[in-house]
Amino acid sequence: MAPTIAKGVIKRRPSMEALAQRHDLDAKAVRLMQCLRKTYGRGPLLVPLPFRPQLLLLDPHHVAEALEGTPMPFTPASKEKRSALAHFEPGNVLISNASRRAELRPLHEHALATNERVHPFVEHFDHIVREELQALLPLADTGIRCVSWDEFSQSWFRIVRRIVLGDSAREDDQLTNDLDDLRRRANWAFAAFANKGKLKRYQKRVAEYLRQPEPGSLISRLPNRPEVDPESQVAQWLFAFDAAGIATFRALALLGCQPDEQARAVEEADAAAADRPFSRAVLIDAVRLWPTTPAILRELTEDHIIGGQTIRKGTGIIIFAPFFHRDDERLDIANRMTPATWIATESKPSVGLVPFSGGAAICPAHNLVPTAASLAMGAILSKATISVAEPSLDPEQLPGSLDHFEIKIRLSNRQGAAA
């Protein structure tokens, strides 16, 4: 878990991401987990850490049990998660008790259209995405452009602010910067005091957008009532869309090193349908290969038997997603892109493949994020051919760590692309 924590669970640290890639720390973590399984069997493995014990899951069936048993007796509001998220979204559904969760979760599901394959606002979102990504397309004089994460993320966060808060938030970099500062502090969880002044400033700014929500924005589908604490709910959307941007950029890199797969995504981009199954699947597999939530945490609300062991109430549960997603002793797809895995689903808890978690607490944006990403991929592929300038990627043996800060995507004008 050390590299995962060091990289920044809430806000990524560039220096630690680079270190993890240089020393292949995520792959080493998977190998360590494999050694634990060989030594202790299918587990689960109770680790007597300071402060309180943690139960490390080693078997996909126990993963499914924990996720399908959420929120009772496996609550997602673990002590670790509460201490981190309280820095910037103290009233969010993720860290609420069961009764409060029952009130808030349906509001998120409505706003994000959790149970709909394509969000009702997809046409509006597509317009936003195309407009903002136009700046990244190849230069007219050379026909080539090399795009870094810094450049992509600037366009991406304008997209995010417009989708979540409305067009008037397009240039509100200060809002994003304030949230980023709060998230950096949240990396330290209970080891850092909350910056209440900055949190209040951030929430006041969000409240201004909530006061008169723009049609077509996500907040227009969220009740603006004090008891909902909408500022805390919106903070999670903005936070999650950061991870979605990272996954989208990595998905572009995957397509850039595999021309045949890119050709399939180009066909979808040219067809311009709202639902793009293959592009969605590429995004989901990018999250599988490099999980943006490496550690899925739960906490037992009562004594419970797992794997024949009685585990005490209050014990923390750790699902280390990279182990299950990249376990080459169990999966032949471990280290290569396989979009076909995801054409019909976003989660397979029974085999430990949970890029968007699973069960009742599955990410409520598990449909929206792949849709937004597929629109972004389509906006670029409809005009440009992608290759990877850096780093060198072997599609048959993809690295355990992929530092998105170091990725550079080369875009070249597509022959015959529509003007």
By DSSP (H or I, 4+ residues per run), the number of helices equals 15
Output the radius of gyration. Answer: 21 Å
Order of helices and strands: HHHEEHEHHHEHHHHHHEEEEHHEE
- Principal-axes shape call: globular
- End-to-end separation in angstroms reads 48 Å
Q: Indicate the low-confidence ranges by residue numbers.
A: none
Largest sheet: 5 strands, mixed
Given helix and strand content, the structural type is alpha+beta
Strand order of the largest sheet: 1-2-8-5-3
Portion in helices: 40-55%
Please tally the β strands and state the result: 10
Mean pLDDT: 95
Tell me the β content.
5-15%
List keywords for this structure.
single chain; three-stranded antiparallel sheet; five-stranded mixed sheet; 15 helices; 419 residues; alpha+beta
Question: What would your notes on this structure say?
Answer:
It is a single chain. The protein is an alpha+beta fold and 419 residues long. The chain has helices spanning 2-7, 14-22, 25-40, 60-68, 79-85, 98-112, 122-133, 149-165, 173-186, 196-211, 230-256, 259-271, 277-289, 321-325, 368-381; strands spanning 45-47, 54-56, 74-75, 144-148, 295-300, 304-306, 309-311, 316-320, 384-390, 408-413. The protein contains 15 helices and 10 strands. It has a 5-stranded mixed β-sheet with strand order 1-2-8-5-3, sandwiched between helices. A 3-stranded antiparallel β-sheet has the order 4-10-9. The protein has a two-stranded antiparallel sheet with strand order 6-7. A hairpin with a 6-residue loop joins strand 1 (45-47) and strand 2 (54-56). It is globular. The chain starts with a helix and ends in a 6-residue tail after the last strand. The mean pLDDT is 95.
